[in-house]
Design goal:
Blueprint lengths: L7 E6 L3 H12 L4 E4 L15 E2 L9 H25 L10 E5 L2 H15 L10 E4 H7 L9 E5 L3 E2 L2 H14 L3 E3 L4 E7 L2 E6 L4 E8 L5 H4 L12 E8 L13 E3 L5 E4 L13 H14 L8 E9 L8 E4 L6 E5 L7 H14 L4 H7 L2 H8 L1
Parallel strand pairs: 1-2, 1-11, 2-8, 11-17
Antiparallel strand pairs: 3-7, 4-6, 5-6, 9-10, 10-11, 12-14, 12-15, 13-14, 16-17
Bound molecules: flavin-adenine dinucleotide.
C-alpha cells in the first residue's frame, strides 16, 4: 500500500521574523507550509529589536555579506508593497539613508577606518558611504548637539515598524492558508523514507522538507539533520521615550524616531543571555550618549525599556545551509532578520521550494566555514 503523502511540503521550525518571512515566501511558491513555534511566551528577538534595515558597515570580515545585505535593502520597498497589496497593512518602511554619529574626532577616525577596510576587501560590492563633518550632518539632522563632530552616512539605510511587520507577515500567512502551530516546540527530527517526522510538544508533523529558523535554538536542532549552527547569543537593551514632534527624518544606528513618534535608543551588547535582565548602567550610558547627540532628549520621559537576546552566530554572519546527510533539510539563521526579511521571503524561500540553495549562497554562508576556521 502506497505511503500516505506528507501532510506538508515544508515544515518551518521557528515563528520569529526569519521563520515567518521564509514561510511567506514558500507559500508564494505554492508550497503547503506549517510553521512550528513555542508560542508567544518564547524568548524571541523578533519582539525586541531596533527595526533598522541597515547596510553600512555590513560585511567587514565576510565580503559577500555586504552584497547580500544590499540585495535585501534594494528589495525591501517591493517587499513592503507586496505585503500591503495582500494584507492592506503598511509596515512603514522608509529608506532615507542612515547615520552613524561620532562624538569625538577619534570616534570619527575609527569609523572612517572601518569603512575603508570594508570597501577595500577583495570582491566586496561597491556602495556609497560618506564621512560628513558637523555642519554637513546638521543640514540633514538639524537637532544634533555641539558634541557631534561628524558621521558616516549611507543612502541605502532605512527602517521599518518591525512589530507591524511581524503582525503583517502572520496576517499574510493566514490569508495564504499556512498552518501556524504555536505551542509546538520541536523536540526531535527524523528522516523516515522520503519525509521528515518532527516530534513536537503538540502532535507529530510530517513534511517533505524542513527549514530550521529557530534563532539561537538552531544550535540544538541543526545536528538532528546533519547540520551545524554554532551560536553566540548576546543581549541588547533598548530605551523608548514618549512620543515627540517629528525631528529625526533619518535613522541613526543607535537612535531612531518611530512612525508613532517615540524615540528608540539602543546601542548595547552584553554577553548575558538572560532576556529578563536589564542593566541600569547600560540604559544610563545609552541615554547619556543619546542626549549628547540630541540635547532636546534631555528632559523627555522614558516610557519603556527592555532587553532582548540577539540571534548571533559565532562569527556574527548569517548561516544558510543545506544538509548532505538529510537532503531537504535547511538552515536559515542570522542576526539582522529585519534587514534580511526581503531576501528570506523573495530569494531564500524560492530556493528551498526548488529543493536546493544556490551554490553561491551556500558557498558564502554555509556553517562549513567554522570547520575550515577550526582546522586552520
Ligand atoms: C536588541 C536587538 C536589536 C536588534 N535590532 C535589529 C535591527 O535594527 N535590524 C535588524 O535587521 N535586526 C535586528 N535585530 C535582530 C532581529 O531581531 C532578528 O534577527 C529577527 O528578529 C529574527 O529573529 P529569528 O526569527 O531568527 O529569531 P527569534 O525572533 O528569536 O524567533 C525564533 C523562534 O523560534 C522558536 N523556537 C525556538 N526553538 C524552537 C523549537 N524547538 N521548536 C519550535 N520553535 C522553536 C521560538 O519560539 C521563537 O519564536 C535585533 C535583535 C535584538 C535582540
Amino acid at each position: 500500500m502506497a505511503a500516505e503523502p506528507s501532510e506538508f511540503d515544508v515544515a518551518v521550525v521557528g515563528g520569529g521574523l526569519v521563520g515567518v518571512a521564509t514561510a511567506y515566501g514558500l507559500a508564494r511558491e505554492g508550497c503547503r507550509v506549517v510553521v512550528l513555534d513555542e508560542g508567544d511566551r518564547a524568548v524571541r528577538a523578533s519582539r525586541g529589536n531596533f527595526a533598522l534595515v541597515w547596510v553600512q558597515s555590513k560585511g567587514l570580515g565576510l565580503a559577500p555579506y555586504a552584497g547580500w545585505t544590499i540585495r535585501s535593502s534594494e528589495a525591501w520597498a517591493g517587499f513592503s508593497q507586496l505585503l500591503k497589496e495582500e494584507t492592506g497593512l503598511d509596515v512603514s518602511f522608509q529608506r532615507p539613508g542612515g547615520f552613524h554619529l561620532a562624538l569625538s574626532e577619534k570616534e570619527l577616525e575609527a569609523r572612517a577606518n572601518i569603512l575603508r577596510r570594508l570597501h577595500n576587501q577583495p570582491g566586496v560590492v561597491e556602495y556609497k558611504t560618506e564621512i560628513l563633518d558637523h555642519s554637513q550632518v546638521k543640514k540633514m539632522l538639524p537637532d544634533i548637539g555641539p558634541e557631534v563632530v561628524g558621521a558616516s552616512y549611507c543612502p541605502l539605510d532605512g527602517h521599518v515598524n518591525s512589530l507591524r511587520l511581524f503582525r503583517t507577515l502572520h496576517t499574510a500567512l493566514r490569508q495564504r492558508g499556512v498552518t501556524y502551530l504555536p505551542s509546538h516546540r520541536v523536540e526531535a527530527i527524523d528522516k523516515v523514507g522520503g519525509e521528515f517526522r518532527l516530534t513536537t510538544t503538540g502532535r507529530e508533523i510530517r513534511a517533505g522538507r524542513v527549514a530550521l529558523a529557530a534563532g539561537n535554538a538552531n544550535m540544538r536542532l541543526a545536528p538532528m539533520v546533519g547540520l551545524d549552527c554554532p551560536m553566540k547569543p548576546e543581549r541588547g537593551q533598548i530605551v523608548v521615550t514618549e512620543r515627540l514632534r517629528p525631528f529625526l527624518n533619518y535613522p541613526v544606528v543607535t537612535l531612531r524616531q518611530t512612525d508613532e513618534g517615540t524615540v528608540m535608543i539602543g546601542d548595547s551588547k552584553e554577553e548575558s543571555t538572560d532576556p529578563a535582565g536589564l542593566t541600569l548602567g547600560v540604559s544610563a550610558t545609552e541615554a547619556e550618549r543619546a542626549v549628547r547627540q540630541f540635547p532636546l532628549l534631555a528632559n523627555v520621559n522614558v516610557v519603556r525599556t527592555w532587553s532582548a537576546i540577539r540571534v548571533m552566530t559565532q562569527d556574527g554572519f548569517p548561516i544558510y545551509d543545506q544538509s548532505e546527510s538529510h537532503p531537504g533539510a535547511f538552515t536559515v539563521c542570522c542576526h539582522s532578520g529585519v534587514t534580511l526579511a526581503a531576501n528570506h521571503a523573495l530569494t531564500v524561500a524560492p530556493m528551498i521550494a526548488r529543493g536546493a540553495l544556490d551554490p553561491a549562497l551556500v558557498g558564502a554562508f554555509s556553517a562549513r566555514r567554522f570547520h575550515v576556521q577550526a582546522a586552520g
